[in-house]
C-alpha cells in the first residue's frame, strides 16, 4: 500500500492541504453543523438514559455499574462506556441536555473523518469523500448523533476496529490486531 493516503500515525505537520483535504474539511463542517446546531434544544433526549447519567453522578458505585436508580439497584441495558463518557461530560460541563448529547455528536463527526480515511486508503479519495458525505448527510446518522443513546460512539469504536484490523492484515502486526479486539470489547 503506498503512502498516498495519510494514516492515523502520519504526523499532522507532514500532511499536505490538497483539494481532497479541503473537501473533507467542508464535509466535516457540514456534519458538525447538522450534529451541533441547536443541540441544546433537544432537551435530555431519552430521559431514561439521562436519569441514569444523573444517578451515575451521585456515587462511584452508580457510575461503575451504570445504575439507573440512586440506590444502585437497577442498571442500564447497554454497555457502560458511552454512559461513562456522558457522565464525564456532565461532570465537566454540568448536567444538562447539551452535555449529555455533546459526546455523541462529536463521535459522529469523528466517524465521518475516520470513514473517509478507511475508504480512501483502499478505494481512492473520491470514494472516501463520497462515503464521508453520505455518512454526514444520512438522516438516521444525524438523528442518532443528536440523541443520548450510545450508537454514535459504537459506530466510531467499530470504525476504529476496522481500521486496526485492516492495518493488522496489511502489516501482519499482532499488536494492531489486539487493538482491534480492544476496540470491539469497548
Distance between the termini: 29 Å
String of helices and strands: HHHHHHHHH
Low-confidence stretches: none
Tell me about the largest β-sheet: none
Could you explain how this protein is built, in words?
This protein is mostly helical and 186 residues long. The chain has helices at residues 19-36, 47-56, 60-65, 81-93, 97-123, 125-137, 139-145, 151-171, 174-185. The protein is built from nine helices and no strands. Helix 1 (19-36) runs antiparallel to helix 5 (97-123), helix 2 (47-56) crosses helix 4 and helix 5 (97-123) crosses helix 7 (139-145). The radius of gyration is 18 Å and the shape is globular. The mean pLDDT is 88.
What attributes does this structure have?
single chain; 9 helices
Topology:
Blueprint: H1 19-36, H2 47-56, H3 60-65, H4 81-93, H5 97-123, H6 125-137, H7 139-145, H8 151-171, H9 174-185
Helix pairs in contact: 1-5, 1-6, 2-4, 4-5, 5-6, 5-7, 5-8, 8-9
